[in-house]
Hints:
Blueprint: H1 10-20, H2 28-34, E1 39-43, E2 46-49, E3 54-57, H3 60-63, H4 72-85, H5 97-109, E4 114-120, H6 123-140, E5 148-152, H7 161-166, H8 170-173, E6 182-185, H9 190-193, H10 199-217, E7 222-227, H11 243-254, E8 257-261, H12 275-279, E9 285-288, E10 300-305, H13 306-314, H14 328-343, H15 346-363, E11 371-377, E12 380-385, H16 401-412, E13 415-416, E14 418-420, E15 423-426, H17 434-457
Parallel strand pairs: 3-13, 5-6, 5-7, 7-8, 8-9
Antiparallel strand pairs: 1-2, 2-3, 4-10, 9-10, 11-12, 12-15, 14-15
Helix pairs in contact: 1-2, 4-14, 5-14, 10-11, 15-17, 16-17
Bound molecules: pyridoxal-5'-phosphate.
Amino acid sequence: MNKITNHLPTAELQALDAAHHMHPFTAGAALAKKGARVMTQGKGVWLTDSEGHKIIDGMAGLWCVNIGYGRSELGVVAARQMEELAYYNTFFQTTHVPAIALAAKLAELAPGDLNHVFFAGSGSEANDTNIRLVRRYWQIKEQPQKRIIIARKNGYHGSTMGGGSLGGMTYIHAHGGKIDGIEHIGQPHWWAEGGEMTPEAFGLMRAQELEAKILELGVENVAAFIGEPIQGAGGVIVPPSTYWPEIQRIVDKYGILLIADEVITGFGRTGNWFGSQTFGIKPHIMTIAKGLSSGYAPIGGSIVCDEIAKTVGEAGDFNHGYTYSGHPVAAAVALENLRILEEEKIIDHVRDVAHPYLAERWNALTDHPMVGEAKLVGLMGSIALTPDKATRAKFAGEEGKVGFRCRERCFANDLIMRHVGDRMIIAPPLVITPAEIDVLMERAWKSLDECYAGLKADGLFVSA
Length: 464
Ligand SMILES: *Cc1c(COP(=O)(O)O)cnc(C)c1O
């Protein structure tokens, strides 16, 4: 059997990695010089690296390991499925049990009339599906010019050409361009952009940019709006309470389709099965991935409402699909993940235990001299680092420099907490216990204290 070992010394692994492995969203040469941290094992919320450090994973991998690491049931299911039927496609009038069972289960879990699933291999691919699906829908409805999709600046929808174009991150557009027919409006990021307005008034204003954009483009040209219930990669931006109800009013008024990108917010992250339930959003399509399999196998998809599925299905072929759409092993693993989430009442644990316990401690971070605001929905949180809380000032110098320094302190203290600009973010596995939350918070305080002392010593605790 081909066994992947971790037996080489760390430096040799790092040298091979540097020589042959291109990392996503990474400055390759700089990492090669420094050496990547080699992760070797995971159990629950804990990771072990090749040097034997026990690290608490405050990010659930990349927001995906909802049930925690090391659940052997998923491996057993994967092995069984590989023996039974390792692969078959679903293109040519065929199907298989894992795809059927997973689609039916997702239809049961998803709210409203979201009853149909188009599978993909990832969240990015699912959003590419969504672009084609909504354009195809309006084409069948004899409005083929309705093809523009409105999204938000600083939104994240993946990094394929379609996903990256829907996303509002200009640094992604800068590498390879952006496809046509996608427009961006402002984000509901009160802390950074709300000025003197109240969060509620600001949320309303940002939602009304959608109406202005629809009128500017002409409603006859607009197919859909896409948004994450809470922006994840953009910095865990929790919208003001006024935002989603106003977005919903506008999409209803103009009859455009609403896509909720639930890739992070799905499968318990916000304390409900879906973020749309937490925020009272009624989407026509939900994008799913990440927590769908807790990251144990690559799988994503689009959960589609009756009307779109019926319209597209009755019009003949939909010329779209992936070799691995509904891959049987990935589907079986996802089903087992959903069984664990459900039977072990992990979402109840988020809502009734982990969220309340963490919220009290997370919000107390605003007592720290450099933390301006703390946000936590379910188990998805952020803090804003600032040199002046009263004015919500940015730090002098390049944005993100302070966040990076803070993240480095977290790394040194065996805590994985990410930075987005000068915000620090967490999204731990949903199974995290109060005792583990205590460890996470202790390391977070220590890291913030060290970062603060370092900034002071270097004369960098100054406003822009
Ligand atoms: C991660 C993410 C994606 C992309 O998913 P991949 O599986 O990385 O392609 C899309 N949307 C959101 C909201 C995400 O967080």
